[in-house]
Design brief:
single chain, mainly alpha, 3 helices
Length: 97
């Protein structure tokens, strides 16, 4: 009986710890790929896949959950808007020639 209670308590703590991860995943999934450079978006997609794998793991540790959430958050923050990358948009300035 005590073993089942311990497992139930552990699962409850993991679920509690995953709330931040679930929110980060939800926010990342809402982003529009067309708004970001291909390279930065691909990096975010890799972090999103890793975060989803941890979110689906019912035995994920607190450390794994934190690492996945931090990694996804960092990847989202590192996204570069297409208009933020000067090399991806043509210049409308007249040349000085």
């Amino acid at each position: 009986m005590t073993n089942r209670l311990t497992k139930a308590n552990a699962k409850a703590r993991v679920k509690e710890n995953k709330e931040f991860l679930f929110k980060a995943i939800e926010e990342a999934e809402a982003l529009n790929e067309k708004d970001y450079t291909a390279e930065s978006y691909a990096e975010m997609v890799r972090a999103l896949a890793a975060a989803k794998a941890v979110a689906e793991d019912e035995y994920a540790t607190k450390e794994q959950i934190k690492k996945a959430a931090d990694g996804l958050t960092a990847a989202v923050q590192a996204l570069q808007k297409v208009s933020d990358n000067p090399s991806s948009t043509p210049s409308n300035k007249p040349s000085d020639s």
